[in-house]
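Technical annex, item 7. During the second reporting period the consortium partners agreed on a shared format for inverse folding records so that results from different sites could be compared directly. Each record opens with the tokenized structure and is followed by the designed sequence. A conforming record, contributed by the partner at site C, is shown below for reference.
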């Protein structure tokens, strides 16, 4: 008679991911290009190097030193913020910053 298994099999540990908040000048050109590729691969927004350089801040996710994800906070656009607040009926100040995008490299999506 074999003993019943009372606990699930041990899972492999998840890869180590690190997130770093960056000012636009903190990344090299190759790093910025990698970020553009990741966002472009996501297909949700049209992106180019210039748009990425205009971001107020970036969050960059790495594993083993390789960039695998990126998010942005858009540059200050008070007129746009005021227009969105008016259209939405939700009051917020025109100084409110906008989340630009969040994208993850395909091979790092849907991970436990």
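Designed sequence (site C submission):
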């Amino acid at each position: 008679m074999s003993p019943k298994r009372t606990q699930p099999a041990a899972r492999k540990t998840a890869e180590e991911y690190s997130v770093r908040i960056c000012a636009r000048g903190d990344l090299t050109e190759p790093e910025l290009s990698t970020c553009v590729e990741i966002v472009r691969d996501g297909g949700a927004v049209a992106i180019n190097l210039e748009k990425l350089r205009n971001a107020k801040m970036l969050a960059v996710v790495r594993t083993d030193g390789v960039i695998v994800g990126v998010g942005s906070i858009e540059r200050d656009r008070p007129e746009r913020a005021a227009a969105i607040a008016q259209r939405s009926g939700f009051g917020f100040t025109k100084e409110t910053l906008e989340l630009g995008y969040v994208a993850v490299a395909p091979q790092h999506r849907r991970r436990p």
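The beta strands are 18-22, 57-63, 66-73, 99-104. The chain has one domain: 19-107. All partners now use this format for quarterly exchanges.
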